[in-house]
Amino acid sequence: MFDKTRPEMKYVRMLGTLSPNTRRVAEVLRIHGPRTRAELTVLTGLSRPTVANGVTELGAAGLVEEELKTAVGPAGGRPAAVVRLARAAGLAIGLDIGRRHVRVAIADLGHQVIDDSAVRLSFDADEEADSVLDQAVELVDRALTGIGSTRDDVAAVGLGLPAPMTKSGRIGSPPLLPAWAAMIAADELAIRLGRPVRVENDANLGALGEFVWGAGQGCSGLVYVKVATGIGGGIVLDGRLYRGTIGTAGELGHVTLDARGPVCRCGNRGCLELSAGGRAMVEHARRSHPQLRDFAELVTMAADGDRGCRRLLADAGHQLGVALGGLVNLLNPDRIVLGGELGAATGLLLEPLRRGLADTAMPAAADAVKVVPAHLGEHAAALGAIALALGVQAAALPAGAGWAEAGPP
């Protein structure tokens, strides 16, 4: 059985030949990303000479590289050198499995994203877990081959699934992903890949990705909302991903809006997802647009000006705002990040969402929270999965770190 709490294989074998203090420097670089020597001194708790010796030893082993920061502070002066783990140290993989897609992102242990690719599934992932995992492995191998690497270069894998996940790695609500309920997905994927795997709810990973690299940079608390076939939510409080007692916090789509409403697939009545989720919107839109294929096409039609589709998104935005008002009252976050499959139509939900929020949140809390579109789009969960694989905590990187300014590869 793999130890899923830390990277293994090639990376650990290489570190095994080095001194304990040098390994400490390397682990801080893996978790916190590129750092100056002064920052490494603080983060490791080691003396400056000891950090310098560690960097030298890692450099001699080909595990780190040093480069000058491109930005200089307002006071001017010479830019500091930044130390980062080199590609030779290994790779981390982020996998995002949705109901109709699989996306893989690859980064080196220095937090540099190297590749990002996706495939559409010809079947529903809810029903064919083994087939989805097989396709995920094929996509990983193809991506590794494309960058001239192999599985032996991979230190760890992060996996996102569209369902609440308990801390034991099981589906928290089996009716939401029935074919996966009997398995521990991380273990199944680890057996196929021969690498350690950590698993998390996809919306939690979206929150982590946006907080570390995207629209959540610089804030202390955010709620990430993923609008896709269903509705997911991820919460960051005081710079940490909040999972709840058993790991299922943030299930925004299953907040009850109408206790006497229709029965949801989760078993409850009147869930938000039944009125504002992509699946529900598509079913409604097909009454006037019977040829409509999926939620992505509905979003495209709305962005192109279709009045019916635009109204459906606006109504969904208001319902989202109503549900989020209670969450804002309870948690008082400073940012709500709106993501998922919305793309260019995100703006159609923003104003209705703000109005719904004003209807249910206390005025002071509603005024304090900013509602913004996600920066990472469809890449958010896969990048959050990379952070999960690397062991990155939500508060590890400062605003401006990562590749958000350049955009996805």
Automatic annotation (TrEMBL):
Top-level taxon of origin: Bacteria
Transmembrane helix among keywords: no
UniProt keywords, alphabetically: Kinase, Transferase
PROSITE patterns reported for this sequence: ROK
GO MF terms held by the record: kinase activity
Keyword Ligase: no
Family: Belongs to the ROK (NagC/XylR) family.
Protein name from the UniProt record: Putative NBD/HSP70 family sugar kinase
Record organism: Allocatelliglobosispora scoriae
